[in-house]
Amino acid sequence: MSDPAVSERTVYRTCPLCEATCGLELTVRDARVTRVRGDREDVFSAGYLCPKGVALGELHDDPDRLRQPLIRTADGFREASWDEAFAHVEAGLAPILARGDRNAVALYAGNPVSHNLGANVYLRPLIRALASRNFYSASTVDQMPKHVVSGLLFGDPQALPVPDVDRCEFLLMLGANPWESNGSLWTAPNLPARLKALVKRGGKLVVIDPRRTRTAAHASEHHAIRPGSDALWLLALASVIVFERLAKPDRLAKITSGLEPLRELLLPFTAQAVAAHCGIAAQDTERLARELAASPAAAVYARFGTHAARFGTLAAWATELLNVLTGNLDRAGGVMFPRGAHERARDGVGGGKGFRIGRWHSRVRGLPEVMSELPVATLAEEITTPGQGQIRALLTVAGNPVLSTPEGAQLARAFDELEFMVSVDIYLNETSRHADVILPPPSPLERSHYDMFFYRLSVRAIANYSAPVFAAAGPDEAHILARLALIARGEGAGADTAIVDRELLDELIHRELSHPQSLLAGRDADDIRASLDGDVPCDRVVDFLLRTGPHGDGFGQRADGLSLAHLRAHPHGLDFGAMQPQLPALLKTPSARIELLSDLVRDELARIRRELLEQPPQDSLLLIGRREFQSNNSWMHNLPSLATGQAHCVLQMHPDDARRRGLLDGGAVAVRSAAARVVVPLQVTSAIAPGVVSLPHGYGHGLAGMRLSVAHEVPGASANDLTVCEVEGPSGNAILNGVAVSVEAA
Ligand SMILES: Nc1nc2c(c(=O)[nH]1)N[C@H]1C(S)=C(S)[C@@H](COP(=O)(O)OP(=O)(O)OC[C@H]3O[C@@H](n4cnc5c(=O)[nH]c(N)nc54)[C@H](O)[C@@H]3O)O[C@H]1N2
Ligand SMILES: Nc1nc2c(c(=O)[nH]1)N[C@H]1C(S)=C(S)[C@@H](COP(=O)(O)OP(=O)(O)OC[C@H]3O[C@@H](n4cnc5c(=O)[nH]c(N)nc54)[C@H](O)[C@@H]3O)O[C@H]1N2
Ligand code: SF4
Ligand SMILES: [Mo]
């Protein structure tokens, strides 16, 4: 028997499960995690954690989590060796690619890609290798409107401002529930404490949400808004600010175009005119607009509930419009642009190529491309509609679109029409059960982690690196994606992935060396490559980015500068301070200004007048979603400590609506939309506004042929069987909130 004192160790790790990037302290005995606690010394999270972080060990040990590739046979899946699985992928894809239509092979990338260093870095080589216009991701069931607006206004769809919560005095929050989601496109661990502190120092938190969420319950003020009407309401705030002459864009005025025509454009959107559509009284709207304008440090933050809804792009635009009009964009305490320690310095005075959408369109519905993606709401019809460019094969990477995208049941049927499908996934679940081959990457504890994606959205510049806790038995995710890329390029299932690793690093080094103000000017690329630190290629990428970043050692130029080695010596992370102003250097618009108005925005303003403002207010029952603290989209319901069951997949309804329909709390109800009918238990609660019902997404684990023994016991129903494949507007984001439904006793 091993001596516990010898075999027990403590490791520190950044949790990769949500955007909050909490530091965890793991106690490990032999090959098991025996305890997970918040790391009290973590420079960012200071001990905070949630039940999902605690479940990381359980995820690692989950007997249903796949450890070996699976290949479909006539009688179900069988385990295969990695070489056999990749050979099978090549045999399936090669004949389809040989027909000469690159668009015949599609890719869907899901949310965990952005939480996973290997997948994050190696997705691009795979996308390039496929050279297909049929690229889809969870972004079009989530935040695409926000990217479109940053693209239009700042010329960079990735330049996403976040509330400077720790210095803010007035936070207007719409369609977000950080008390349970832990924040979104806004990295700040323990947001509940940060928001409580805001209120405690005399600040104000105003929440706009059809439900009285836990966040709303802690707010200074909460208003229930009619789903899908946020754009209209935000425009009304802007119109009050403009017509009462409260706008003070200050220093922003000099670098912003499009302020002048606003008076005319905002004229129809009075607080009075929008009141009946939004369900918010005109005097409240006017008062809040005045308070917002008067605050010395205010931020408007709108998230998921407003983006995955009608007029999501316009809501995202009106949000930034308010931040500009009040002078709060790029100002301490307002909304600011984070910059990660691995991001290159933004030098110069700005200006660039700008941003546009619609460089190509989807084949069936003609929806515009955005950021080289097509809307996932069009995926099913692109598979089932014959003709040149029809999708015949699909790769999914860390995605579960059957549960996470609209009309999921219809998408599942479409998958069965494919000639070939590959899923890179850790579970045999609702989506991967349709695959011919499933390739499972290692568990989160078997990989290194540096939160490349979310440190770019973080309220403080944090750098923290986690080494793998356990050695992986199989190839890591980067290696899997590299092999898929080589197959797609026709180099064969046996080609050496070092080719892709080398190309990636060479491209990074070349880009830095060719930069006019490069720190490394005159240096030799081979020397630099040879001096990189890291056990796996992704770690060397991180080392390179840290060393050429704003705090980096510049490969020997700054003695105590940042590097991967430096981070290894700081297991609780390093904090490089609060966000700093970034304008105008950040701007990549052709004019080097914030371009407030564009044809796209004018068209959307005209459309919302026509389709919403000038229509009679609708009173149909509208379905929205919700997130719960111990759940994570569709894929953590197989962990016993989190799966407290179907009890969570219940439909919330206001007592007045229930009474009118003769429905009782706890009874089974049938919810019917244009797409489907599902049966779920009812929860009658005054926490939801009349005329609105709410069902969480990510359930529906009752299908056959999966390996999810715990989730299968309490399956719930999928909210996305009810949602329809309609998009909000130019971003192509699906409308997942504000879906017309009827409810009756089942
Ligand atoms: N109605 C409704 N629909 C929604 C939402 C909503 O609020 N309401 N929310 C939307 C949002 S915001 C999002 S982001 C999407 C999410 O949409 P998706 O990303 O498609 O779905 P997830 O549920 O996150 O599923 C993630 C998948 O990745 C697998 N996985 C987990 N970790 C790893 C890993 O490290 N590597 C690999 N290869 N696989 C892994 C899981 O087993 C699972 O199959 O859903 C959207 N859909
Ligand atoms: N516990 C937990 N945490 C998560 C996740 C999870 O599944 N579970 N998922 C992660 C992911 S992928 C994301 S993108 C983030 C999302 O995190 P958030 O952006 O905070 O989104 P949600 O928690 O879904 O909260 C959205 C809110 O919008 C409200 N809402 C719905 N429709 C409307 C509307 O039309 N107008 C307004 N104003 N409000 C509306 C809903 O009632 C809900 O309270 O959470 C992340 N964190
Ligand atoms: S809040 Fe997010 S990052 Fe923190 S422990 Fe929970 S899942 Fe992990
Ligand atoms: Mo998301």
What oligomeric assembly is this protein in? single chain
How many beta-strand elements? 27
Low-pLDDT segments: none
Instruction: Enumerate the distinct ligands.
Output: ligand MGD, iron/sulfur cluster, molybdenum atom
Structure annotation, total helices: 26
Enumerate the strands of the largest sheet in spatial order, edge to edge or round the barrel: 5-4-17-16-15-6-7
Q: Mean of residue pLDDT? A: 96
CATH homologous group name of one domain:
Dimethylsulfoxide Reductase, domain 2
In helices, the fraction of residues equals 25-40%
Tell me which CATH architecture of one domain applies here.
3-Layer(aba) Sandwich
> What is the CATH class name of one domain?
Alpha Beta
Q: Give a short account of the largest sheet.
A: 7 strands, mixed
CATH topology of one domain: Dimethylsulfoxide Reductase, domain 2
- What's the Cα radius of gyration? 25 Å
What percentage of the residues does DSSP assign to strands (E)?
15-25%
What structural class do helix, strand and pairing data support? alpha/beta
Shape: globular
Distance between the termini: 58 Å
What would your notes on this structure say?
- By secondary structure, this protein is of the alpha/beta class.
- Among the domains are: 8-61, Phosphorylase Kinase, domain 1; 164-342 and 592-609, 3-Layer(aba) Sandwich (Dimethylsulfoxide Reductase, domain 2), CATH 3.40.228; 500-569, no CATH class; 620-745, Barwin-like endoglucanases.
- Helix content is 31%, strand content 15%.
- The protein contains 26 helices and 27 strands.
- Strands 5-4-17-16-15-6-7 form a 7-stranded mixed sheet, covered by helices on one side.
- A hairpin with a 2-residue loop joins strand 2 (23-29) and strand 3.
- Helix 5 runs parallel beside helix 19 and helix 10 (230-243) runs parallel beside helix 15 (312-325).
- Residues 111, 142 line the site of molybdenum atom (MO).
